[in-house]
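Running this now, will post back.
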Amino acid sequence: MDLNSLDDRELAEALKRGDDRALDALVRRHQGRVYAVAYRLTGNREDALDVSQEALLKAYRKIHAWQPTGGFLPWLLRLTSNQAIDLIRQRKRRRHERLDETYTPDSEHAPVEPSGHDTAVEVHAREIDERVRAALVVLSPTQRTVFVLRHYEGLQLSDIAAQLGCTVGSVKVHLFRALKKLQRELGDLHDVAR
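Update: finished.
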């Protein structure tokens, strides 16, 4: 049987039955998305790798808690965002390194960009993306999670609410506050765009 032809629900069910090959297929399918969420929430490569690894391990260990009524990917992204929030809270308690690590295009921690021609528009978009990513540190962990899941991952508000275990109204409030904080942080970008 070709596991890659199965959908997430079928793979998760196979994993519940003890087929570890299903885990490999799920990891290959979703590791990029898991890393992207972890990276946007933690703000640096090393933490994102740690969070991704831990979230995938938790998914394996807790697969019996997953229910087919909910999608596998939202469940996996919830594990990822919870893992990232835990790491951020730990860091704040221990007062370790700062989250606002700066990124430069030639930094070893910079995200990998597709190769191609660097037009002025692409360069400007990359600069804006770096500014937004750096500004995410002003948000609370919950605001950051809501913002990343909505604007980077494109999840519906109801899916975010289900992931965070809160109401859609609460998600709207966190998103509104996140947008206001980012608007204050990035106000100069708005003025330049006019």
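DSSP finds nine helices and no strands in the chain. More later if anyone needs it.
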